[in-house]
Amino acid sequence: MNTSKKDMPTPEPEGQRAPARRELLKTTALLGGLASVVGRVRAETSEAEGRAAGPAEAAPSAADYIYTTCLQCNTGCEIKVRIQDGVAVKVEGNPYGPRAMDPHIPWNTPVAAAARVHGHICPKGQAGTQSSYDPYRVVKVLKRAGRRGENRWISIPFDQAISEIVEGGNLFPGESRRVTGLREIWSLRDPAVAKALSDDVALIHSRKMTVAEFKTKHAANLHHLIDPDHPDLGPKNNQFVFNWGRLKAGRSDFFSRFVRTSFGSANAHGHTTVCQGSIYFASKAMSDQPSGGSFTGGAKFYWMADLSHSEFIIYWGANVLEANYGPPLKAPKLGRGLASGRLKLAVVDPRFSPAAAKAWKWVPIRPGEDAALAMGMIRWIIENSRFDRRYLENANRAAATADGEPTWSNACWLVKIESDGRPGALLRAADVGLPGDADTFVALKGTRPVAFKSDDAANAAEGDLFVNTTLGGVRVKSSLQVLWEEASSKSLADWGALCDVSTDTIIELAREFTSHGKRAVVEIHRGVSQHTNGFYNVLATYALNLLVGNLDWQGGLVYSGGTYTEGGGSGRPFSLSQHPRPLTAFGTSVIRHEQDYEKSTFFSGYPARRPWYPLASDVYQEVIPSCGDGYPYPIKALFLYMGAPVYALPAGNQLIPILADTSKIPLFVTSDIVISEHSLYADYIFPDLTYLERWEYHRTHPSIVHRVSPVRQPAIASPNETARIYGEDLPVSMEAVFLALAEKLQMPGFGPGGFAPGADLVRPEDFYLKMAANVAFGDSSTGADICPDASDEEVEAFLSARRHLPRSMFDADKWEKAVGSQWWRKVIYVLNRGGRWWSYAEAWSGGQTKAKYGKLVNLYLEKAATKRNSMTGQWLNGSATYIPIADALGRPIQDRGYGLRLITCRTMLATKSRTISNYWLLDRMPENTLDLHPTDAARLGLSDGQRARVVSATNPAGVWDLKNGFQVPMVGRVRVTEGIRPGVVSFVLGYGHWAYGAADQIIDGQLVRGDPRRAAGVHANAAMRADDFLKNTCLSDVVGGSAVFYDTMVNLVPA
Amino acid sequence: MIAEMLKNCFRFRQGRRNFLRTGAVGACAALGMATGRRLTSPRTVAAAPPLPEAPGSELVRMQRELDLALARPPASRRWLMVVDPRKCIGCQACVVACRAENVTGPAGSYRRVPEGPAGRYPHPTNVFMPANCMQCDDPPCARAVPPGMIRKQPDGIVEFDYTQLKGTHAAAAAAACPYRAVHVDDGVFFTDATPRRQAYESRSFNEYRGAYRRGPELSGVARKCHFCAHRLEAGVLPACVSTCIGGAMFFGDAADPNSMVSELVREHRSFGIHQELGTLPRVRYIEEKLLQVRQFSCATCH
Questions:
Q1: What is the secondary structure of A327-387 as a DSSP string?
Q2: Res B22 pLDDT > 80
Q3: Which of A208, A368, A470, A1023 is most deeply packed, by most CB within 10 A?
Q4: What is the pLDDT of residues A859-896, one digit of tens each?
Q5: Which helix (H) or strand (E) holds A284?
Q6: Which of B56, B194, B234 sits opposite A58 (nearest CB)?
């Protein structure tokens, strides 16, 4: 390294210092502000006089910190950032928040006192400043100067980029094609017309209107549609696709406002299926409630253990001490429980994780066979009557309440059995001649059928658990009977053979799990869900929890405590959805989510061209490949925000030829902080703000039992160039892009009167500060919880802490104006603390959690049982069941000659694609390895430290083909370890980059040298199998949507 | 007026290191009031706002105890660090926190967390053992260099004199340490091999009552953990202690029988690493195992 030429640098302020500092010194209160004044004067003096007289340390002052929320992973821990000379120099845990302190301090603790209490935070959080202070930050708008993927760029003015994207035209030298701009894509702009078309498309789907009738009725507006012969595809507006990776509330509301409400596109998609996909959608189906004859309203969320009180937890496919949600939240509680002896762990994972090192039992399961292990346990539990009979016999709310249970299941509800023996829909009272509506179900008590409604709080209904009979001529079984038949379809030994777990271990796990009442939990994560059979793995493992009836109990399976309704409504001061002219976005999305294939005008038998996902949304692996296939329609523009699908998805290499193809993706715009692996193919890259520079409301996770609203707010000046939009100077960001597009298009919902006449949306703070005011309002819709005004001392600390921010990012007058003087000091109170949280003790009461799930949980899913698999035409199974690994057509995958199962995992020191820039983390782990059991290493002739290439049936060459003349081989160092199951090879995800600063770039004709440290290691996602039918997509769970990471067979070849 | 007062204070303090050696503590104390000075003035911390109530929080308890310790004369304090390996999960948060707090470079770190994998599939084990400078009562590093370059303070912290501990002396100190706790700063920055060195790497930070920056000033100088003495004097726990997400780190005054660290070593068996060398380390490791978890006995390695 070349250090001799570098002089001692002076600190480089990352933005202009606000000029207000001298004024501030004059007005600073003597006592509160003095400590901070002292600190700063000292620093100046020692610079002047040399080092000899060093400054003494003053106790930390609130004016030295900005309280915000980490985003180095999705946990979103509460942090505070120490600012020194305008530079973020140290991150600490924010003691006000439960992710960073256990127990956390009271919310009303004065900020001066909290300033010197530092909570805990993981290494990524500590290194987070390096994500912002990344030498490869993109700070100006870039336009590609060559072909897609060439990595040659010119910086262009922000306004020019906006203009080109809006107006389209002949935008790229050397290309004769005309790009369709957003102005033209934004075809349908009349809300009344949009609503009318949307309503009638619904009638087409319910067979109450034909396409011909639709075309006649709406002849004047057919030109707005993508295809008038398929009106259910929706308007041309849908050909603008917005896809995001890591996006949280607040920002997601701002972006949705543009994409859905103002622009009217139905194509706003997240990334859920690359994370836990099928857990979300199985849980959503489990939480659907009966309404109007069907099951609806399920929450896209799931459950986890109340770790502070549990006695036994099986962490199943959950890497809790390196990943999950997240180590700072869970490790302290695990430590307490383990050290005191209260808590015992079992870890089901092919890999010996740090959690396994603390476990009573490590179960190195065969990957993807989770349902088999669960079924074995379910069988033993039922055979030995070790389930909570009283819980399962409750059919409705009244029965549950009578037993002191907060939830109830449909275990005793009767299911109709079809003529082919398949369980179908649930039995309704009317089916057997009993009085009741479409939401009146039936159980059997002895010989007497009992009709009931699920949410009936007055009339308790109970039913027998194992029913298999004919009732009123209808073949019926209880839900639990259906599950029992699944579980007893194989012996324990046969289940064990499938998952490679001994019968003794199955019994030990099941016995321990049923020996702790409701303080035992099966907690699952990606290891369970990211398989082709993920949805059913989730149902089977969660069924274990239902068998012990542990939902909402202290120490049991709990739901998150929720958040403080940041978006408004129910008495809150600001409603962020207020919009003068909202459009109804409608039509089948490019990922065909939440739609039935059979209802679509596209239906043409099985298999569908690509999967339809009636039970899932945010199917990340479908977005770009569907655009590539033009199915169900071609698109005109793709915007990708903080998402790295090429790097992060399994078989992400399959996306590259599509992104590089201007006929498939005519306009490709990314919002990025560096030139990442996907941005290589962009037409335009807009720089974005890092998490230390921006707003967001990170919300919560399943095991956070407290109500929480952590706020992400600007802590440092952004290095990005500034743009002027609606007369306001802003650093370039994704908000700035949407504001500028809206300004150019004169789009309702943004700008002056953007919310309503007199209520402007011209700066991001106009949006985000109103959410802070809603947080200040508190829990109670009557306003009983409104927080106090910040004191003068707190206001002083607030202003002083932000003195280094430029006016384009912090203008106290404009901030006050965004919420009004009535709310300003309350907003300061919230922002000074970094958010709002329930007090520690508030989360539990009466042996249960305070924020309960509190309703029906479905053991049996009628909704699933009445949907068909769009690829096979088969009915989906409504119960947990064992389904072997299969491709999209349900065919077993036979990759003969490939002998190792490839899996991947997180390390504590990396997150997906974005932490390779953190040199403090790289220093701890400069590269990842291919981890292998000694017997496999011996068999393959590979020794520890030897380099090997990863190859698979769909990537026999073992390379990333970047379609720009370069290939990146998937070669890594072998590490032989006893901590992995034989037959499995594992690599840590986050290494082996070929962009993100790893490669040389040419910007404005200048060569910017890449840093080879970022290229170290191997990224084996391109070896993960592409589906043989879909070809350009990874293996998927076509029911729950999960992108599959763990079901590929590979070989390691000496390199 | 305030600025003038403080400026005078600074000129006076230029000779402060000499002050301390001659024990002219009172002179410093006289200036202590409005300036939040360290060591000699208990009023820095007393003037700070009271700590919040957080029943069950070890961190807040340890900070309260720190306040009490700082209110006592420095010579009466005996800093002790206690590590509970049962709770360490090997996450390296402490290592990275230390880097950020004390601005160390690629050449070395004040703290390490080695792991100890053992056993055979399907019953492997692993244990994580965080380590930093042990602030030995009889430090081998001090014996390896001329007197005065390395000084053991009354409160237990072993201090390096950056003006002298350079070159061969630095190398000798590093080589002498059986805990590999000492490294020699080489003036290299993490972002050197990138388009632009970043400001946080060359920021000013406090060590041994002096303000430093990495670069030529510290190049060739021996550096090591000092229990975040600069944080202690401000009433804040060491970075590794506050950031530990496993709750494995404890710190306090062993001279206070009611302190958490005193309680821990009373209630649990504990050991010092390489006790047999007679270094008398000020870091103790709890020598117990988790119930029903397969682990190696600490005695195996220690």
A1: HHHHHHHHHHHHHHT--EEEEE-SB--TTGGG-SEEE-PPTT-HHHHHHHHHHHHHHTT-S
A2: no
A3: A1023
A4: 999 999 999 999 999 999 999 999 999 999 999 999 99
A5: helix A277-286
A6: B234
> B57 Cβ partners below 8 Å, 6+ apart?
A101, A102, A103, A105
Check if the beta carbon of residue B185 is closer than 8 Å to that of residue B108: yes
Locus of tokens 């845990």 = A93
Residues of B in contact with A1008 (CB under 8 A): 195
Q: How far is CA A701 from CA A322, A704, A838, B244, in A?
A: 16, 6, 15, 21
Which residues lie closer than 8 Å to A220 by C-beta, 6 or more apart?
none
Q: What is the pLDDT of residue B198?
A: 97
Chain B residues in contact with A338 by the CB 8 A cut-off are 86-87, 290-291, 293
A331 contacts B97? CB cut-off 8 A: no
Q: Which residues contact A10 (CB under 8 A, 6 or more apart)?
A: none
Mean pLDDT, to the nearest integer, of A807-815? Answer: 98
Residue A257 tokens, joined? 């406002």
CA–centroid distance for A730 within its chain: 28
Return the residue of B nearest to A131 by Cα: B198
pLDDT tens-digit series, residues A228-271: 999 999 999 999 999 999 999 999 999 999 999 999 999 999 99
Residue A249: CB atoms within 10 A of its CB come to 18
Chain A hits for B93, Cβ within 8 Å: 120-123, 125-126
Arithmetic mean of pLDDT over chain A: 94
* Average pLDDT taken over every residue of chain B: 86
Q: Could you tell me the CA-to-CA distances from A1014 to A914, B91, B107, B193, B268 in Å, in that order?
A: 11, 21, 19, 11, 44
Name the pTM for this structure: 0.92
Contact B7 A45 (CB under 8 A): yes
User: How many Å lie between the alpha carbon of A624 and the closest alpha carbon of chain B?
Assistant: 33
CA distance A514 to B75: 56
- For chain A, the distance separating the N- and C-terminal CA atoms, rounded to the nearest angstrom, is 28
Dist. CA A343–CA B181, nearest whole Å? 35
Note whether B242 contacts A119, CB cutoff 8 Å: yes
Q: What residues does B159 pair with on adjacent strands?
A: B151
For B:91-120, CB contacts with A below 8 A are 91-93, 95-97, 99-101, 106, 109, 117, 119-120
The pLDDT of residue A614:
97
Q: What is the DSSP string of A417-471?
A: EPTTS-EEEEPBGGGGT----TTEEEEEETTEEEEEETT-SSS--B--SS-EEEE
**A1001: helix, strand or coil:** strand
Show Cβ contacts of residue A11 under 8 Å, excluding neighbours closer than 6 positions. Answer: A85, A86, A87, B199, B202, B203, B204
pLDDT on residue B272: 95
Closest to A128 measured CA to CA, from A165, A95, A152, A92? A92
Largest CA distance in chain B: 72
Contact A2 B199 (CB under 8 A): no
C-alpha to C-alpha distances, A434 to A393, A469, A571, nearest whole angstrom: 21, 17, 42
> Whole-angstrom Cα distance, residue A624 to residue A660?
11
Of A577, A580, A573, the C-alpha closest to A821 is A573
